Amino acid sequence: MLGIGIVAWIIIGGLAGWIASKIMKTDAQQGILLNIVVGIVGGLLGGFVLWLVGVDVESAGWFFSFFTCLAGACILLYLVKLFTGRRSAH
User: pTM of the entire structure?
Assistant: First the structure.
């Protein structure tokens, strides 16, 4: 994902963070800025995990980058909920 520009990072990260917050039921606790941060950090986390198993993330394309961010953001939100003890608001 390092091959795309900062605007693309923000757009992909924002979308991935928002969708991940919906999946993980943390959307009520987050705003747009936190969604972007979660998506970008999730992309780094997801990219690192895929790199560890030998997947070439950088040349995989936009859709793969988005799904990498989405998966990483879900993992990140899960870990945050696990360590902070927060439960989803129903």
Answer: 0.79
